TrEMBL record:
Predominant location category: mitochondrion
Keyword Mitochondrion: yes
PROSITE patterns registered for this protein in UniProt: LYSM (PS51782), TLDC (PS51886)
Database matches in Pfam families: LysM (PF01476), TLD (PF07534)
Name listed for the protein in its UniProt record: Oxidation resistance protein 1
One GO term describing the cellular component: mitochondrion
Alphabetically ordered keywords of this record: Mitochondrion
InterPro entries to which the protein is assigned, alphabetical: LysM, LysM_dom_sf, TLDc_dom
UniProt-annotated location(s): Mitochondrion
Domain called TLDc: residue spans: 305-466
Domain LysM: 4-48
Amino acid sequence: MGYDNYVVKEGDSWATIAFQFGMSLYNLLRINQLTEDSLVLPGMVLKVKEGQKKPAEEEKKIESPATPLQAEAQKKVHKQEVYYCTRDGDVLGILSVTDELIMFDPFIINKNYCEIISPRGKERAIALQFQACMDMRDIIKCRIYELPSINSVSVEDSKGRVFFTQFLLSRTGREKRGPRINLPKANVYFRIADLVNSTRLTYLEQKSTAEQLLALIEEKIKSLAVSDELASSTYVPYFDVNKSFKRIVEEHISSSPQEVNINPADDYEELKAEIVEINEEISKSAQQQNLDEPEFIPTLSRQSLILSQRMINQITIYLPTILQMRNWELLYSPIVHGSSLSVFYRQVEATGPSVMVIQDQNHHVFGGFVSDTWQMHHTYYGTGDCFLFTFRNSDQITCYFPTLINDYYMHSDLDALTMGSGGKAGLYVDRELMSGSSGHSETYNNSVLSSTEDFEILKLEVWGLV
């Protein structure tokens, strides 16, 4: 294959250059002997795929004043102020949505630097490290999280709410070739900016902005033309490894390629290599999480009668990134509020994601994290962020993440609270909140969480994330 030369222009990024010339990010960097950490500098001369460069006349047209038709096309780029949520902190910038790409560019505060906001305060970092690009073809799902603000008085404080957009991606941009299986590999989060030009947005303004952004992206995904092109422009420097993807790949890595619906041998070898990448990413996150001296220790609204600090630290590590830096508020406990499902629903109303922990008659500790508010529902609901966990009679956690075989993440009605199904319920709590059961579910492929399959509830707590 031959190559042309391309001179980098102001505002170019690795992802946009790769997209312009129909190349994968990996190939663009490889043929130029660069890495994803290399700086993109105006004037650089890069090798690009031959025959893909735009004609000079077309470039001139773009640089000339826009015609009415071009002006109409430019309106299709929707721009929204957001915070890119990373394990280092939140970075303010612009999310640009086009027909085929979603790009994030940090705000520059001083030369090539941007600002990171975290519990440690404000810090500076090289802005290039936080540039991200998502190819619409790689987005499996997009959804909105509504959560209490860090500064909320409680989880029920409607004035202190924030909105996050979550993207489930089939790739991260570090792969050598095209996507192998249509499974969520990475979770990426952006928080809708609650300040615009120093003016604080109201709750309804934030909610409307988030819903409009979601509707726009969903519409563009639906209108994508069918293509066999494997090249992708996705590159996200910071993401949560989707626990379901890691689990599925590990459980099937010894199976034949046909069993996991992937391409023949060479692609299967790449799938094995992805395990290394996934584990490296998890290790990066884990290195920042010392169980005895973690970077952030949640403050509890009252002392837990079930969990030790070490247990809390371990549960926190497995929460989505956007929830790890939050304090815990006790929403419900039979000891405090009484054993009744009606009281339970009243206490947890509109509180968002939560952690339920149970101690059974033999003092085994177990529970689950749910992505949505517990509420009366006729069908199963929730997302693949839900998971079950158990400490048994120790202080070492074992987690069970969704298998994606089904979507029976959580269910709640007048008779019971349930997590997981297919076979048996992974976790079942009866209407009196005094007993329950735990069995193997296809949803989470979990072992029995409690000391016995049928258990009596000694203590139960539900914690909201403020």
